[in-house]
Design goal:
Elements: E1 2-6, E2 9-12, E3 17-24, E4 32-38, E5 45-50, E6 57-58, E7 67-72, E8 77-82, E9 91-99, E10 101-104, E11 108-113
């Protein structure tokens, strides 16, 4: 079971990036899926998730209105559209899939320059 993130990179403040997370080895349509990030010296922070029960999305205030999570079950892929990026969004971003057990990707670096 694998999750592979892509789409990270260097972007100027105010710019956008779209992260992708492709799952293989399982069908994640019945999994809770989402994204976390971890900046140097900081705790891991959840930035987006899609609930399994009703498909609703959740975001912390720090990214609400700027980040959008979506999923394509046919492609077994989850996306994170990030707009109006800020330097404080700089972190390694990880996707996960959870159903009794959590599966994690290897992470992708996002760097936002001021």
């Amino acid at each position: 079971l694998h999750l592979v993130e892509s789409g990270g990179g260097l972007v100027q403040a105010g710019g956008s990036l779209r992260l992708s997370c492709a799952a293989s080895g399982f069908a994640f349509d019945n999994y809770r899926i989402g994204w976390y990030r971890q900046a140097p010296g900081k705790d891991r922070e959840g930035v987006a998730c899609i609930r399994t029960s009703d498909g609703r999305t959740d975001y912390p205030n720090s990214v609400k209105g700027r980040f959008t999570i979506s999923r394509d079950n046919a492609k077994n892929t989850v996306y994170l559209q990030m707009n109006s990026l800020k330097p404080e969004d700089t972190a390694v971003y990880y996707c996960y899939a959870y159903k009794m057990v959590a599966y994690w990707g290897q992470g992708t670096q996002v760097t936002v320059s001021s």
